[in-house]
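User: I've been going back and forth on whether these two constructs are worth ordering. Before I decide, could you fold them both?

Assistant: Sure. I'll take them in the order you sent them. The first construct and its C-alpha coordinates:
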Amino acid sequence: MSEPDIHPTAIVEPGARLGSGVKVGPYCVISAKAELGPGCRLQNHVTIEGPSVIGAENVFYPYTSIGQQTQDLKYRGEPTHLRIGDGNTFREFVTVHRGTAPDSCTVIGNRGNFLAYSHVAHDCIVGDGVIFSNNGTIAGHVEVHDHAVIGGLTAIHQYCRIGRHAITGGCSKIVQDVPPFMIADGNPATVRGVNQIGLERHGFDAESIRCLREAYRLLYRSELNVKQAVEEIRKTLGDSSEIGHLVDFIEASSRGIIRRPVRGATEE
Protein backbone atom coordinates (compact mmCIF):
# COMPACT_ATOMS: atom_id res chain seq x y z
CA MET A 1 0.00 0.00 0.00
CA SER A 2 0.95 3.64 -0.40
CA GLU A 3 1.92 6.22 2.16
CA PRO A 4 -0.88 7.84 4.18
CA ASP A 5 -2.93 10.42 2.27
CA ILE A 6 -3.58 13.38 4.59
CA HIS A 7 -5.73 16.32 3.53
CA PRO A 8 -3.99 19.69 4.10
CA THR A 9 -6.74 20.86 6.48
CA ALA A 10 -6.39 17.81 8.74
CA ILE A 11 -4.39 17.97 11.99
CA VAL A 12 -2.23 14.94 12.74
CA GLU A 13 -0.26 15.51 15.91
CA PRO A 14 3.38 14.46 16.06
CA GLY A 15 3.57 10.97 17.53
CA ALA A 16 0.42 9.66 15.84
CA ARG A 17 1.08 6.44 13.92
CA LEU A 18 -0.66 5.92 10.58
CA GLY A 19 -0.38 2.66 8.66
CA SER A 20 0.10 2.36 4.93
CA GLY A 21 -2.78 3.51 2.76
CA VAL A 22 -4.56 5.43 5.54
CA LYS A 23 -6.68 8.24 4.11
CA VAL A 24 -7.38 11.26 6.33
CA GLY A 25 -10.01 13.62 4.96
CA PRO A 26 -10.68 17.33 5.52
CA TYR A 27 -10.70 18.77 9.04
CA CYS A 28 -9.94 15.52 10.83
CA VAL A 29 -7.97 15.62 14.10
CA ILE A 30 -5.75 12.72 15.15
CA SER A 31 -4.13 12.72 18.59
CA ALA A 32 -0.48 12.01 19.22
CA LYS A 33 -1.55 8.92 21.18
CA ALA A 34 -3.55 7.34 18.35
CA GLU A 35 -2.48 4.47 16.11
CA LEU A 36 -4.37 3.66 12.89
CA GLY A 37 -3.77 0.41 11.02
CA PRO A 38 -3.36 0.01 7.26
CA GLY A 39 -6.18 1.07 4.98
CA CYS A 40 -8.27 3.03 7.48
CA ARG A 41 -10.37 5.82 5.98
CA LEU A 42 -11.45 8.98 7.78
CA GLN A 43 -13.94 10.89 5.63
CA ASN A 44 -14.04 14.38 7.21
CA HIS A 45 -14.39 16.04 10.63
CA VAL A 46 -13.37 12.82 12.40
CA THR A 47 -11.69 13.04 15.82
CA ILE A 48 -9.42 10.23 17.03
CA GLU A 49 -8.11 10.65 20.58
CA GLY A 50 -6.05 8.24 22.63
CA PRO A 51 -4.30 6.21 23.78
CA SER A 52 -6.12 4.26 21.04
CA VAL A 53 -4.95 1.36 18.90
CA ILE A 54 -7.13 0.88 15.84
CA GLY A 55 -6.70 -2.02 13.42
CA ALA A 56 -6.86 -2.22 9.63
CA GLU A 57 -9.53 -1.19 7.12
CA ASN A 58 -11.79 0.68 9.53
CA VAL A 59 -14.02 3.39 8.03
CA PHE A 60 -15.03 6.52 9.97
CA TYR A 61 -17.83 8.72 8.66
CA PRO A 62 -18.15 12.47 9.40
CA TYR A 63 -18.24 13.70 13.00
CA THR A 64 -17.33 10.43 14.66
CA SER A 65 -15.49 10.90 17.94
CA ILE A 66 -13.33 7.92 18.85
CA GLY A 67 -11.15 7.40 21.92
CA GLN A 68 -12.30 10.38 23.95
CA GLN A 69 -11.99 10.21 27.73
CA THR A 70 -14.68 8.42 29.71
CA GLN A 71 -17.75 10.31 30.96
CA ASP A 72 -17.49 8.40 34.24
CA LEU A 73 -17.29 11.00 37.04
CA LYS A 74 -14.74 8.84 38.89
CA TYR A 75 -12.17 9.50 36.16
CA ARG A 76 -9.21 11.55 37.33
CA GLY A 77 -7.07 11.75 34.19
CA GLU A 78 -5.21 8.45 34.48
CA PRO A 79 -3.97 6.79 31.26
CA THR A 80 -6.74 4.58 29.88
CA HIS A 81 -7.06 2.85 26.54
CA LEU A 82 -9.20 1.91 23.54
CA ARG A 83 -8.55 -1.04 21.25
CA ILE A 84 -10.46 -1.58 18.00
CA GLY A 85 -10.04 -4.52 15.62
CA ASP A 86 -10.31 -4.64 11.83
CA GLY A 87 -12.95 -3.86 9.24
CA ASN A 88 -15.42 -1.89 11.34
CA THR A 89 -17.68 0.87 10.06
CA PHE A 90 -18.49 3.86 12.27
CA ARG A 91 -21.25 6.02 10.83
CA GLU A 92 -22.02 9.68 11.51
CA PHE A 93 -21.66 10.99 15.08
CA VAL A 94 -20.72 7.63 16.63
CA THR A 95 -18.89 8.02 19.96
CA VAL A 96 -16.55 5.47 21.56
CA HIS A 97 -14.84 6.17 24.90
CA ARG A 98 -11.73 4.84 26.62
CA GLY A 99 -11.75 3.05 30.00
CA THR A 100 -12.00 4.63 33.44
CA ALA A 101 -9.60 2.94 35.90
CA PRO A 102 -5.85 3.29 35.33
CA ASP A 103 -4.74 1.19 32.33
CA SER A 104 -8.30 -0.08 31.73
CA CYS A 105 -9.44 -0.63 28.15
CA THR A 106 -12.56 -0.44 26.02
CA VAL A 107 -12.43 -3.18 23.38
CA ILE A 108 -14.21 -3.51 20.04
CA GLY A 109 -13.71 -6.55 17.82
CA ASN A 110 -13.84 -6.95 14.04
CA ARG A 111 -16.35 -6.24 11.25
CA GLY A 112 -18.86 -4.35 13.38
CA ASN A 113 -21.34 -1.89 11.92
CA PHE A 114 -22.05 1.08 14.19
CA LEU A 115 -24.83 3.23 12.76
CA ALA A 116 -25.42 6.94 13.30
CA TYR A 117 -25.29 8.33 16.84
CA SER A 118 -24.61 4.95 18.46
CA HIS A 119 -22.47 5.05 21.60
CA VAL A 120 -19.97 2.67 23.23
CA ALA A 121 -19.14 3.79 26.76
CA HIS A 122 -16.10 3.22 28.94
CA ASP A 123 -14.79 -0.28 29.69
CA CYS A 124 -17.19 -2.05 27.32
CA ILE A 125 -16.26 -5.23 25.49
CA VAL A 126 -17.86 -5.57 22.05
CA GLY A 127 -17.37 -8.70 19.97
CA ASP A 128 -17.14 -9.44 16.26
CA GLY A 129 -19.81 -8.87 13.63
CA VAL A 130 -22.11 -6.79 15.80
CA ILE A 131 -24.65 -4.27 14.53
CA PHE A 132 -25.58 -1.16 16.49
CA SER A 133 -28.62 0.47 14.90
CA ASN A 134 -29.11 4.25 15.02
CA ASN A 135 -28.81 5.63 18.56
CA GLY A 136 -28.06 2.23 20.09
CA THR A 137 -26.43 3.12 23.41
CA ILE A 138 -24.49 0.97 25.86
CA ALA A 139 -23.42 2.19 29.28
CA GLY A 140 -20.12 1.42 30.97
CA HIS A 141 -18.86 -2.15 31.45
CA VAL A 142 -21.43 -3.65 29.08
CA GLU A 143 -20.52 -6.76 27.07
CA VAL A 144 -21.97 -7.26 23.58
CA HIS A 145 -21.06 -10.70 22.28
CA ASP A 146 -20.40 -11.80 18.70
CA HIS A 147 -23.09 -11.16 16.06
CA ALA A 148 -25.49 -9.47 18.46
CA VAL A 149 -27.78 -6.76 17.08
CA ILE A 150 -28.65 -3.67 19.14
CA GLY A 151 -31.92 -2.10 17.96
CA GLY A 152 -32.37 1.58 17.25
CA LEU A 153 -32.76 3.77 20.34
CA THR A 154 -32.03 0.79 22.61
CA ALA A 155 -30.43 1.74 25.93
CA ILE A 156 -28.46 -0.87 27.87
CA HIS A 157 -27.72 -0.52 31.59
CA GLN A 158 -24.16 -0.76 32.85
CA TYR A 159 -22.71 -4.24 33.50
CA CYS A 160 -25.35 -5.98 31.37
CA ARG A 161 -24.39 -8.61 28.80
CA ILE A 162 -25.97 -9.13 25.40
CA GLY A 163 -25.42 -12.73 24.34
CA ARG A 164 -24.14 -14.09 21.06
CA HIS A 165 -26.63 -13.82 18.17
CA ALA A 166 -29.13 -12.02 20.41
CA ILE A 167 -31.16 -9.08 19.13
CA THR A 168 -32.90 -6.20 20.90
CA GLY A 169 -35.93 -4.43 19.51
CA GLY A 170 -36.01 -0.70 18.84
CA CYS A 171 -36.57 1.64 21.81
CA SER A 172 -35.89 -1.17 24.29
CA LYS A 173 -34.72 -0.66 27.88
CA ILE A 174 -32.29 -3.42 28.89
CA VAL A 175 -31.51 -3.73 32.62
CA GLN A 176 -30.50 -7.43 32.81
CA ASP A 177 -28.62 -9.87 30.61
CA VAL A 178 -30.12 -10.91 27.27
CA PRO A 179 -29.38 -14.63 26.78
CA PRO A 180 -27.66 -15.68 23.56
CA PHE A 181 -29.81 -16.52 20.53
CA MET A 182 -32.86 -14.69 21.94
CA ILE A 183 -34.97 -11.65 21.02
CA ALA A 184 -35.53 -9.01 23.71
CA ASP A 185 -37.95 -6.14 23.19
CA GLY A 186 -39.88 -3.59 25.20
CA ASN A 187 -39.58 -1.04 28.00
CA PRO A 188 -38.73 -2.73 30.24
CA ALA A 189 -37.58 -5.41 27.83
CA THR A 190 -38.87 -8.96 27.88
CA VAL A 191 -37.59 -12.00 26.00
CA ARG A 192 -39.99 -12.65 23.13
CA GLY A 193 -38.53 -15.80 21.58
CA VAL A 194 -35.62 -17.29 19.68
CA ASN A 195 -33.89 -15.17 17.04
CA GLN A 196 -34.75 -17.77 14.43
CA ILE A 197 -34.38 -15.63 11.32
CA GLY A 198 -31.01 -14.33 12.46
CA LEU A 199 -29.81 -17.84 13.25
CA GLU A 200 -30.94 -19.15 9.85
CA ARG A 201 -29.08 -16.33 8.13
CA HIS A 202 -25.92 -17.34 9.98
CA GLY A 203 -26.23 -20.96 8.93
CA PHE A 204 -27.61 -22.63 12.07
CA ASP A 205 -29.27 -25.92 11.19
CA ALA A 206 -32.87 -26.90 11.96
CA GLU A 207 -31.93 -29.20 14.85
CA SER A 208 -29.90 -26.50 16.62
CA ILE A 209 -32.79 -24.07 16.30
CA ARG A 210 -35.26 -26.69 17.53
CA CYS A 211 -33.14 -27.22 20.65
CA LEU A 212 -32.98 -23.49 21.31
CA ARG A 213 -36.74 -23.14 20.91
CA GLU A 214 -37.24 -25.92 23.47
CA ALA A 215 -34.77 -24.19 25.82
CA TYR A 216 -36.76 -20.98 25.41
CA ARG A 217 -39.96 -22.85 26.28
CA LEU A 218 -38.43 -24.22 29.46
CA LEU A 219 -37.01 -20.85 30.50
CA TYR A 220 -39.95 -18.63 29.64
CA ARG A 221 -43.10 -20.65 29.04
CA SER A 222 -42.98 -23.23 31.83
CA GLU A 223 -43.57 -22.94 35.57
CA LEU A 224 -39.89 -23.65 36.33
CA ASN A 225 -37.63 -21.11 37.96
CA VAL A 226 -34.29 -20.34 36.31
CA LYS A 227 -32.31 -22.93 38.26
CA GLN A 228 -34.87 -25.64 37.59
CA ALA A 229 -35.11 -24.67 33.91
CA VAL A 230 -31.33 -24.81 33.50
CA GLU A 231 -31.20 -28.24 35.12
CA GLU A 232 -33.94 -29.50 32.78
CA ILE A 233 -32.25 -27.95 29.74
CA ARG A 234 -28.94 -29.53 30.66
CA LYS A 235 -30.59 -32.91 31.21
CA THR A 236 -32.69 -33.02 28.04
CA LEU A 237 -30.77 -30.86 25.55
CA GLY A 238 -27.21 -30.91 26.82
CA ASP A 239 -25.59 -32.48 23.75
CA SER A 240 -25.98 -29.29 21.70
CA SER A 241 -23.03 -26.88 21.66
CA GLU A 242 -25.46 -23.94 21.44
CA ILE A 243 -27.31 -25.21 24.51
CA GLY A 244 -24.03 -25.56 26.38
CA HIS A 245 -23.18 -21.96 25.54
CA LEU A 246 -26.64 -20.77 26.61
CA VAL A 247 -26.45 -22.57 29.95
CA ASP A 248 -22.91 -21.31 30.64
CA PHE A 249 -24.03 -17.74 29.89
CA ILE A 250 -26.98 -17.98 32.28
CA GLU A 251 -24.92 -19.50 35.09
CA ALA A 252 -22.26 -16.78 34.73
CA SER A 253 -24.78 -13.94 35.00
CA SER A 254 -24.25 -11.46 37.83
CA ARG A 255 -27.25 -9.22 37.07
CA GLY A 256 -29.54 -12.12 36.17
CA ILE A 257 -31.15 -12.76 32.82
CA ILE A 258 -34.25 -10.94 31.62
CA ARG A 259 -36.98 -13.07 33.12
CA ARG A 260 -40.24 -11.12 33.28
CA PRO A 261 -42.85 -13.32 31.56
CA VAL A 262 -44.80 -12.10 28.58
CA ARG A 263 -48.51 -12.95 28.57
CA GLY A 264 -49.59 -14.32 25.24
CA ALA A 265 -46.08 -14.16 23.73
CA THR A 266 -45.35 -16.51 20.88
CA GLU A 267 -42.03 -17.78 19.66
CA GLU A 268 -40.51 -16.00 16.67
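The second construct, handled the same way:
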Amino acid sequence: MTLALLCSGQGLQSRRMLDLFDDAVSAQPVFAAAASVLGADPRAVLAQADEATLHGNRTSQVFCVTRALAAAACLDLDRPLLVAGYSVGEMAAWGVAGFWSPQETLRLTSIRAELMDKADGGGGGLGFIRGLGRKVVEPLVADYRCAIAIINPGQLFVVGGARDDVAACCSRALIVGAAAARPLAVNIASHTPRLSSAVKPFEAVLSDSAPATPIRGRTLLGAAEGAVVERMAQGGPGLARQLAHTVDWSATLAALVERGADRILELGPGGALADMMRGAYPSLAARALDDFQTLAGAIRWLAA
Protein backbone atom coordinates (compact mmCIF):
# COMPACT_ATOMS: atom_id res chain seq x y z
CA MET A 1 0.00 0.00 0.00
CA THR A 2 1.41 3.40 -1.01
CA LEU A 3 0.40 6.51 0.92
CA ALA A 4 0.09 9.94 -0.70
CA LEU A 5 -0.19 13.12 1.36
CA LEU A 6 -2.04 16.06 -0.18
CA CYS A 7 -1.31 19.56 1.15
CA SER A 8 -4.30 21.89 0.84
CA GLY A 9 -4.53 25.39 -0.57
CA GLN A 10 -6.31 28.51 0.66
CA GLY A 11 -10.02 29.08 1.03
CA LEU A 12 -11.07 26.65 3.78
CA GLN A 13 -9.04 28.01 6.70
CA SER A 14 -11.01 28.49 9.91
CA ARG A 15 -10.43 29.60 13.49
CA ARG A 16 -10.29 25.96 14.63
CA MET A 17 -7.91 24.68 11.98
CA LEU A 18 -5.10 24.05 14.50
CA ASP A 19 -7.21 22.68 17.36
CA LEU A 20 -6.36 19.07 16.51
CA PHE A 21 -2.69 19.71 17.37
CA ASP A 22 -3.11 22.04 20.36
CA ASP A 23 -1.64 19.63 22.91
CA ALA A 24 0.61 17.70 20.51
CA VAL A 25 4.24 18.04 21.52
CA SER A 26 5.45 17.36 17.96
CA ALA A 27 3.53 20.38 16.63
CA GLN A 28 5.08 22.92 18.97
CA PRO A 29 8.25 23.57 16.88
CA VAL A 30 6.01 24.25 13.87
CA PHE A 31 3.90 26.69 15.92
CA ALA A 32 7.08 28.41 17.10
CA ALA A 33 8.26 28.75 13.51
CA ALA A 34 4.89 30.22 12.51
CA ALA A 35 5.03 32.65 15.43
CA SER A 36 8.35 34.00 14.17
CA VAL A 37 6.65 34.84 10.86
CA LEU A 38 3.28 36.04 12.18
CA GLY A 39 4.61 37.90 15.22
CA ALA A 40 2.46 35.82 17.60
CA ASP A 41 1.48 32.22 18.23
CA PRO A 42 -0.68 31.15 15.26
CA ARG A 43 -3.38 29.85 17.62
CA ALA A 44 -3.64 33.27 19.22
CA VAL A 45 -3.83 34.95 15.81
CA LEU A 46 -6.62 32.59 14.77
CA ALA A 47 -8.56 33.33 17.95
CA GLN A 48 -8.13 37.11 17.86
CA ALA A 49 -7.83 38.17 14.23
CA ASP A 50 -10.71 39.77 12.37
CA GLU A 51 -12.13 38.13 9.24
CA ALA A 52 -10.14 40.36 6.89
CA THR A 53 -6.90 39.23 8.54
CA LEU A 54 -7.97 35.59 8.64
CA HIS A 55 -8.56 35.58 4.87
CA GLY A 56 -5.76 37.99 3.96
CA ASN A 57 -3.36 36.49 1.45
CA ARG A 58 -0.17 36.43 3.54
CA THR A 59 -1.80 35.31 6.76
CA SER A 60 -3.92 32.61 5.15
CA GLN A 61 -0.97 31.20 3.22
CA VAL A 62 1.08 30.96 6.40
CA PHE A 63 -1.86 29.34 8.23
CA CYS A 64 -2.37 26.72 5.52
CA VAL A 65 1.30 25.76 5.43
CA THR A 66 1.47 25.71 9.23
CA ARG A 67 -1.47 23.32 9.29
CA ALA A 68 0.17 20.85 6.89
CA LEU A 69 3.55 20.96 8.61
CA ALA A 70 1.95 20.43 12.02
CA ALA A 71 -0.07 17.50 10.69
CA ALA A 72 2.95 15.82 9.14
CA ALA A 73 4.93 16.29 12.36
CA CYS A 74 2.22 14.62 14.45
CA LEU A 75 1.26 11.64 12.30
CA ASP A 76 3.08 8.30 12.24
CA LEU A 77 4.72 8.66 8.83
CA ASP A 78 7.71 6.35 9.16
CA ARG A 79 7.15 4.76 5.75
CA PRO A 80 7.76 5.57 2.08
CA LEU A 81 5.19 8.04 0.81
CA LEU A 82 4.35 10.50 -1.93
CA VAL A 83 3.52 14.14 -1.25
CA ALA A 84 2.02 16.87 -3.44
CA GLY A 85 0.52 20.28 -2.79
CA TYR A 86 -2.29 22.36 -4.25
CA SER A 87 -1.40 26.01 -4.89
CA VAL A 88 0.28 27.31 -1.70
CA GLY A 89 0.04 23.71 -0.52
CA GLU A 90 3.02 23.00 -2.72
CA MET A 91 5.11 25.14 -0.36
CA ALA A 92 3.91 22.89 2.44
CA ALA A 93 4.67 19.80 0.36
CA TRP A 94 8.27 20.88 -0.08
CA GLY A 95 8.52 21.29 3.69
CA VAL A 96 6.82 17.97 4.43
CA ALA A 97 9.25 16.26 2.05
CA GLY A 98 12.12 17.83 3.98
CA PHE A 99 13.51 20.20 1.36
CA TRP A 100 13.35 23.02 3.95
CA SER A 101 13.00 23.21 7.71
CA PRO A 102 9.60 24.37 9.04
CA GLN A 103 11.14 27.76 9.80
CA GLU A 104 12.48 28.16 6.27
CA THR A 105 9.29 26.82 4.68
CA LEU A 106 7.19 29.42 6.49
CA ARG A 107 9.66 32.22 5.84
CA LEU A 108 9.57 31.48 2.13
CA THR A 109 5.79 31.20 2.19
CA SER A 110 5.55 34.66 3.74
CA ILE A 111 7.86 36.14 1.10
CA ARG A 112 5.90 34.37 -1.64
CA ALA A 113 2.66 35.93 -0.42
CA GLU A 114 4.21 39.40 -0.20
CA LEU A 115 5.54 39.16 -3.75
CA MET A 116 2.15 37.97 -4.96
CA ASP A 117 0.38 40.86 -3.25
CA LYS A 118 2.77 43.35 -4.79
CA ALA A 119 2.33 41.87 -8.27
CA ASP A 120 -1.45 41.66 -8.02
CA GLY A 121 -1.75 45.24 -6.86
CA GLY A 122 -4.98 44.60 -4.98
CA GLY A 123 -8.40 43.82 -6.38
CA GLY A 124 -7.59 40.32 -7.63
CA GLY A 125 -9.46 37.16 -6.76
CA LEU A 126 -10.40 33.61 -7.66
CA GLY A 127 -13.66 31.83 -8.44
CA PHE A 128 -14.71 28.40 -9.59
CA ILE A 129 -16.75 27.02 -12.48
CA ARG A 130 -18.05 23.45 -12.39
CA GLY A 131 -19.74 21.47 -15.14
CA LEU A 132 -18.45 23.07 -18.33
CA GLY A 133 -15.75 21.66 -20.62
CA ARG A 134 -12.42 23.38 -21.09
CA LYS A 135 -13.28 24.36 -24.66
CA VAL A 136 -16.19 26.38 -23.24
CA VAL A 137 -14.39 27.75 -20.20
CA GLU A 138 -11.30 29.09 -21.99
CA PRO A 139 -13.12 31.57 -24.28
CA LEU A 140 -15.57 32.42 -21.49
CA VAL A 141 -12.87 33.53 -19.08
CA ALA A 142 -11.06 35.39 -21.85
CA ASP A 143 -14.23 37.39 -22.53
CA TYR A 144 -14.09 38.62 -18.92
CA ARG A 145 -10.33 39.32 -18.87
CA CYS A 146 -9.78 36.31 -16.60
CA ALA A 147 -7.68 33.14 -16.92
CA ILE A 148 -7.86 29.52 -15.85
CA ALA A 149 -5.79 29.25 -12.68
CA ILE A 150 -6.21 25.57 -11.77
CA ILE A 151 -7.55 22.58 -13.71
CA ASN A 152 -9.23 20.08 -11.39
CA PRO A 153 -10.89 16.73 -12.12
CA GLY A 154 -14.58 16.55 -12.93
CA GLN A 155 -14.81 19.69 -15.07
CA LEU A 156 -13.94 21.91 -12.11
CA PHE A 157 -11.92 25.01 -12.99
CA VAL A 158 -10.55 27.70 -10.73
CA VAL A 159 -10.44 31.03 -12.56
CA GLY A 160 -8.69 34.24 -11.64
CA GLY A 161 -8.64 37.91 -12.47
CA ALA A 162 -9.94 41.18 -11.06
CA ARG A 163 -12.59 40.40 -8.43
CA ASP A 164 -15.42 42.12 -10.30
CA ASP A 165 -14.45 40.33 -13.51
CA VAL A 166 -14.34 36.97 -11.72
CA ALA A 167 -17.81 37.56 -10.26
CA ALA A 168 -19.20 38.54 -13.68
CA CYS A 169 -17.53 35.53 -15.31
CA CYS A 170 -19.04 33.16 -12.74
CA SER A 171 -22.49 34.69 -13.27
CA ARG A 172 -22.19 34.21 -17.02
CA ALA A 173 -21.02 30.62 -16.54
CA LEU A 174 -24.25 29.82 -14.74
CA ILE A 175 -26.26 31.31 -17.60
CA VAL A 176 -24.49 29.17 -20.21
CA GLY A 177 -24.98 25.94 -18.30
CA ALA A 178 -22.44 25.58 -15.48
CA ALA A 179 -23.63 23.35 -12.64
CA ALA A 180 -22.13 25.77 -10.12
CA ALA A 181 -19.97 28.90 -10.19
CA ARG A 182 -19.08 31.57 -7.65
CA PRO A 183 -16.18 33.64 -6.29
CA LEU A 184 -13.91 32.07 -3.66
CA ALA A 185 -12.62 33.56 -0.41
CA VAL A 186 -9.17 34.13 -1.94
CA ASN A 187 -8.27 37.75 -2.55
CA ILE A 188 -5.55 37.37 -5.15
CA ALA A 189 -5.47 36.07 -8.71
CA SER A 190 -3.03 33.21 -8.12
CA HIS A 191 -1.70 31.23 -11.09
CA THR A 192 -2.69 33.83 -13.67
CA PRO A 193 -0.68 36.31 -15.77
CA ARG A 194 -1.74 39.00 -13.31
CA LEU A 195 1.16 37.79 -11.12
CA SER A 196 3.83 37.62 -13.83
CA SER A 197 6.05 40.20 -12.15
CA ALA A 198 6.40 37.98 -9.06
CA VAL A 199 7.96 35.02 -10.86
CA LYS A 200 11.58 36.13 -11.26
CA PRO A 201 11.87 37.67 -7.77
CA PHE A 202 10.50 34.51 -6.18
CA GLU A 203 12.80 32.32 -8.24
CA ALA A 204 15.72 34.37 -6.91
CA VAL A 205 14.47 33.96 -3.34
CA LEU A 206 14.21 30.20 -3.79
CA SER A 207 17.70 29.96 -5.24
CA ASP A 208 19.06 31.72 -2.14
CA SER A 209 17.02 29.66 0.34
CA ALA A 210 18.58 27.42 2.97
CA PRO A 211 17.95 23.84 1.84
CA ALA A 212 17.66 20.86 4.16
CA THR A 213 18.23 17.20 3.39
CA PRO A 214 15.03 15.67 1.97
CA ILE A 215 13.55 13.00 4.22
CA ARG A 216 14.47 9.53 3.00
CA GLY A 217 11.49 7.72 1.50
CA ARG A 218 9.39 10.84 0.87
CA THR A 219 8.88 11.53 -2.83
CA LEU A 220 7.81 15.05 -3.79
CA LEU A 221 5.70 15.40 -6.91
CA GLY A 222 5.79 18.97 -8.20
CA ALA A 223 2.46 20.31 -9.42
CA ALA A 224 4.19 22.71 -11.81
CA GLU A 225 6.10 20.02 -13.67
CA GLY A 226 4.05 16.93 -12.83
CA ALA A 227 7.30 15.11 -12.11
CA VAL A 228 9.36 14.00 -9.12
CA VAL A 229 11.41 16.82 -7.61
CA GLU A 230 14.83 15.68 -6.46
CA ARG A 231 16.67 18.96 -5.86
CA MET A 232 16.05 22.69 -5.63
CA ALA A 233 17.79 23.58 -8.89
CA GLN A 234 15.45 21.23 -10.74
CA GLY A 235 12.13 22.13 -9.11
CA GLY A 236 12.59 25.73 -7.99
CA PRO A 237 12.01 27.41 -11.36
CA GLY A 238 8.72 25.55 -11.82
CA LEU A 239 7.61 26.40 -8.29
CA ALA A 240 8.18 30.07 -9.07
CA ARG A 241 6.69 29.93 -12.56
CA GLN A 242 3.40 28.50 -11.32
CA LEU A 243 2.63 31.81 -9.59
CA ALA A 244 1.57 33.15 -12.99
CA HIS A 245 0.70 29.97 -14.91
CA THR A 246 -2.14 27.47 -14.85
CA VAL A 247 -1.69 24.53 -12.47
CA ASP A 248 -3.00 21.21 -13.80
CA TRP A 249 -3.96 19.53 -10.54
CA SER A 250 -5.91 16.88 -12.40
CA ALA A 251 -2.66 15.76 -14.04
CA THR A 252 -0.89 15.79 -10.67
CA LEU A 253 -3.48 13.41 -9.18
CA ALA A 254 -3.16 11.15 -12.21
CA ALA A 255 0.62 11.10 -11.76
CA LEU A 256 0.23 10.12 -8.09
CA VAL A 257 -1.99 7.22 -9.08
CA GLU A 258 0.42 6.18 -11.82
CA ARG A 259 3.19 6.06 -9.21
CA GLY A 260 1.11 3.63 -7.14
CA ALA A 261 -0.74 5.82 -4.63
CA ASP A 262 -3.70 3.86 -3.31
CA ARG A 263 -4.24 5.47 0.10
CA ILE A 264 -4.57 9.25 0.21
CA LEU A 265 -4.69 11.60 3.20
CA GLU A 266 -5.36 15.31 2.78
CA LEU A 267 -3.64 17.25 5.56
CA GLY A 268 -6.03 20.20 5.36
CA PRO A 269 -7.48 22.60 6.14
CA GLY A 270 -10.67 21.15 4.68
CA GLY A 271 -11.31 18.10 2.57
CA ALA A 272 -11.70 19.43 -0.97
CA LEU A 273 -8.69 17.54 -2.33
CA ALA A 274 -9.82 14.24 -0.81
CA ASP A 275 -13.25 14.83 -2.36
CA MET A 276 -11.62 15.38 -5.76
CA MET A 277 -9.60 12.19 -5.42
CA ARG A 278 -12.66 10.14 -4.43
CA GLY A 279 -14.60 11.57 -7.35
CA ALA A 280 -11.88 10.89 -9.90
CA TYR A 281 -10.65 7.57 -8.48
CA PRO A 282 -13.50 6.04 -6.44
CA SER A 283 -11.69 2.73 -5.91
CA LEU A 284 -8.96 4.39 -3.83
CA ALA A 285 -9.08 5.01 -0.08
CA ALA A 286 -9.05 8.80 0.29
CA ARG A 287 -9.68 10.67 3.53
CA ALA A 288 -9.10 14.15 4.91
CA LEU A 289 -7.49 14.69 8.29
CA ASP A 290 -10.50 16.86 9.13
CA ASP A 291 -12.65 13.70 8.85
CA PHE A 292 -11.13 12.53 12.15
CA GLN A 293 -11.93 13.81 15.62
CA THR A 294 -8.49 12.91 16.97
CA LEU A 295 -4.98 12.41 15.72
CA ALA A 296 -5.11 8.90 17.16
CA GLY A 297 -8.03 8.07 14.88
CA ALA A 298 -6.11 9.23 11.82
CA ILE A 299 -3.04 7.28 12.88
CA ARG A 300 -5.13 4.10 13.30
CA TRP A 301 -6.55 4.56 9.80
CA LEU A 302 -3.08 4.97 8.36
CA ALA A 303 -1.93 1.81 10.09
CA ALA A 304 -4.91 -0.33 9.06
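Notes on the second construct follow. The mean pLDDT is 93. The CA atoms of residues 262 and 283 lie 8 Å apart.
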